[in-house]
Design brief:
single chain; 4% strand; two-stranded antiparallel ribbon
């Protein structure tokens, strides 16, 4: 059990994590029903979710079914309305917050730093926007963070390592079952699990391989099996139902669908523009009665630009500290961004950067932890500044009613944000 350090009040870490998750959930669901009509990519995923409920036939075959099944569950529980569509995303976002706090506790060994890190995540703005729209991102993100937490816990717990590894593999399978973007992260996590087991095993190379390889294979089998199980609803379709013989071949159909030609999009952007937020996305700009509702997917400048500055300083050698936490978090950020350099996507969008932005919420605290107590105090002020910036941007990221059609220009700092 992790408690506050000697300079902190002794609060149980699990209580803090629960409060952060519940508080974030309350923030995410406040007026989540605005707008009442589907917007942005909800127009793709809501028909797919309804098809799962009606068992009519395959729709939106380029993506797996887990996240769309979650949307369908929301519709079944709360109705085919804006609450039912979006509540699953809010729930998964809160799970992501709890898992992130857990990871930060293990990484920094300080509930204070883990709390500040998690607040940076909650206020990074893109998490908030994605938590309030029926898309695939939040189920994938939550399950990736849960998987990372489980595998890190397995690394720290010899007695229950197998249980934590199994739970991590299940979460990885669900993450891939939400969106294939999770595949590179699954490869990274499984590779790290193999390396940790190899390093901890005694003896020579042969003995180490005998210890590590079976564990890697078991993790891979569980991950793959859970992923394939997420296609179970497709076996119930009235039209073109899935069969066991077609399940593996269907993966190639999904790949071909994802690789098909896409028409240019006004909000498409290249990966190197995402860190500086050169091209955010207007998910919504709509007149409703006498007011206007807008949702702009834009990051918190304190987190996005501040985190990028730390990364650049670390890479340039200006930052002399080489703590394991800083090196690991910077490497994770570079890995997450590097995926888009390698993956041959025809067009890209700013929301592809969401996982990289989550890594920045670990990079910033890792840097200030290396500066000692003074650095942690500065981190507290930075977190407060991020919260203030979130409040500033709130009207334009939450579909808050704006009085005129040009009020939104108050938040536009660059022409490319228009």
């Amino acid at each position: 059990m992790m408690a506050w350090h000697s300079t902190d009040r002794r609060l149980d870490a699990r209580l803090v994590g629960l409060l952060l998750a519940l508080g974030s959930f309350a923030l995410f669901v406040w007026h989540i029903t605005r707008p009442a009509a589907p917007f942005f990519d909800e127009t793709h995923y809501l028909p797919a979710a309804r098809a799962l409920i009606e068992r009519s036939g395959p729709i939106n075959i380029e993506h797996p079914l887990f996240a769309k099944s979650a949307i369908a569950a929301g519709i079944l529980l709360f109705g085919d309305n804006s609450l039912g569509w979006r509540l699953p995303s809010a729930l998964f976002a809160s799970i992501a917050v709890a898992a992130f706090f857990w990871i930060a506790c293990m990484l920094f060994r300080s509930v204070r730093l883990a709390t500040l890190s998690t607040l940076l995540l909650i206020f990074n703005q893109t998490l908030f926007v994605q938590a309030r729209i029926a898309m695939l991102e939040m189920p994938m993100t939550a399950m990736l963070l849960v998987a990372a937490g489980c595998l890190l816990q397995a690394r720290r717990s010899d007695q229950h390592r197998s249980r934590w590894n199994f739970a991590g593999a299940v979460a990885l399978g669900l993450a891939i079952g939400a969106k294939w973007l999770a595949v590179p992260y699954a490869a990274l996590f499984l590779g790290l699990a193999f390396w940790w087991r190899w390093r901890d095993a005694g003896g020579g190379s042969t003995a180490r391989l005998r210890a590590a390889l079976p564990e890697l294979l078991a993790l891979g089998v569980v991950t793959g099996a859970v992923y394939l199980l997420t296609f179970w609803p497709a076996f119930l379709y009235a039209r073109n139902p899935m069969t066991l013989g077609h399940l593996l071949g269907f993966q190639w159909e999904m790949l071909r669908s994802q690789s098909s030609h896409l028409a240019p999009h006004p909000y498409q952007s290249a990966w190197w523009t995402w860190p500086v937020m050169a091209r955010p996305i207007w998910y919504l700009f709509e007149k409703t009665g006498a007011s206007y509702e807008t949702v702009l997917l834009i990051g918190n400048p304190v987190v996005y630009w501040g985190g990028l500055l730390v990364v650049l300083l670390a890479l340039s050698g200006w930052i002399r500290q080489r703590s394991a936490a800083l090196m690991a978090t910077v490497a994770l950020y570079l890995f997450s961004l590097g995926i888009w350099i390698v993956i041959p996507k025809q067009i890209g969008f700013f929301y592809y950067y969401n996982l990289s932005a989550i890594a920045l919420c670990l990079v910033i605290p890792a840097f200030f932890q290396g500066l000692g107590p003074r650095g942690e105090r500065v981190l507290g002020w930075i977190t407060a500044l991020a919260a203030a910036m979130f409040v500033y941007f709130y009207p334009i990221i939450s579909a808050y009613p704006l009085p005129t059609d040009d009020t939104w220009t108050h938040w536009v700092w660059m022409n490319s944000w228009r």
